[in-house]
Predict the structure of YdcF family protein.
Amino acid sequence: MKLPPYRLKKIWMLLAGFILAFLLTIPVKLAIAYYQTPLPQAILTLGGGSSREEFTAFFAQYYPDMKIWVSSGTPPHKAREIFRAAGIADHRLHLDYSATDTVTNFTTLVDIFQQQQIQHIFLITSDFHMPRAKAIATIVLGSRGIAFTPVSIASKKTELESILRIVRDIVRSLLWIVTGYTGTEF
């Protein structure tokens, strides 16, 4: 049975309305998280070169009670070496290699943060990568009521990532919210 065009249009409008209503809850969830937990409780570093781990190891020395997650960074032996050299205890460090890209850096860890009742994290990545990371974090972490404070690392790259990559990953993040699927092949 084929639906008449006016019914199909109503269904699409209703679906779009539900999605829009859900997306409008993200700023509210973020505001609540920032209010309830104004200071970060953990550190998340996005992999992409040992300089990010080196900076994080130095940064983490100022927050001795915080757990640290590194998502798809340098190989485990090298990462642990970096953190041990900075005096960071192994029990604080969580190396996760399940992500394949920036979107999955967040989608693979957001459940863990929720389970550990983490409502606010430091988000560490390179300066050229931060706009895309913030866009994804706003959607993925924000949808779960987890706030973030960005910490950029200076890099040698002078250009930010393209707006096309940012928009693509925003769409992928929205797809993950709706379907649980990240569209990694896009």
Notes: The CA atoms of residues 26 and 36 lie 15 Å apart.
